[in-house]
Amino acid sequence: METVEYAPGRSVDLYGTPSDPTVLLWHGMQTDSRAALRPLAESIAGHRLAVVVPDWNSHADDGGRADLLGSAAFARENATNANDLVVVGWSMGGLAAAGLTIHSDAVGMRVGHTVCLAGAFGATDPISGGSLADGLDGGPTGSFTLLHGLHDDVVPITVSTTFASRLGEFGWPAEVVELDADHGSIAGARYDATHDRYEPSDDPSTLSVAAEVAERIAVAAGR
């Protein structure tokens, strides 16, 4: 793993070989928490994929939009084929990944496939500053895989199934996959109640979930 800056003062961890297909992986609402995704990123990289894991700040005045678009531009610039970029987001990052895909024409950044892990689709989209539903009638510009844990008590699984139905109404391809996971384990993370933060997990059962998620991401990336 190598750490560089994608913008002044904004860090990103790079996993895998740069010449491999690229996966952009966004953490959730917790500010600058790229480290929480380390187990998942390592597992994804094991499928011969280059993984880009940036920090971003959802509490910024713009909701994190500049960080998200800046890191996406960095990932595309460093990808072997920018049009095949797979964008993966967890929780609020999943919302942002969906927003990037739905509003791809507006931001000038098409992606190959979008994978959302327990996406918080009911919140305000940090990419557009509005509702995800606002851009669906423009016609599909991408496809979705929505992974959600059956034991998620932070974002109910109905959030993903409802969003998938909404996508389908407008012709957007979307698949919902239910996993034996909770809100943290689906991203290879554990919740530290003492510090109110998600941290990278070393629990074997959590790492097993992360491995399954990584395999599904690899399929989305054509691996």
As for the CATH topology, it is: Rossmann fold
Order of helices and strands: EEEHEHEHHEEHEEEH
Q: How many beta strands in the DSSP annotation?
A: 10
Overall average residue pLDDT: 95
Share of residues in helices: 25-40%
Estimated share of beta-strand residues: 15-25%
CATH homologous group name: Alpha/Beta hydrolase fold, catalytic domain
Q: What is the CA–CA distance across the termini?
A: 21 Å
Which ranges are low-confidence, i.e. pLDDT below 50, for 5 or more consecutive residues?
A: none
Overall geometry comes to globular
**CATH-defined architecture:** 3-Layer(aba) Sandwich
CATH class: Alpha Beta
- Main structural class: alpha/beta
How can the largest sheet be summarized? 8 strands, mixed
Number of domains: 1
The rounded Rg comes to 16 Å
Question: Count of helical segments?
Answer: 6
Q: Strands across the major sheet, in which order?
A: 1-2-4-3-5-6-7-8
Explain what you see.
Helix content is 30%, strand content 23%. With 223 residues, it is α/β, with parallel strands linked by helices. An eight-stranded mixed sheet has the order 1-2-4-3-5-6-7-8, sandwiched between helices.
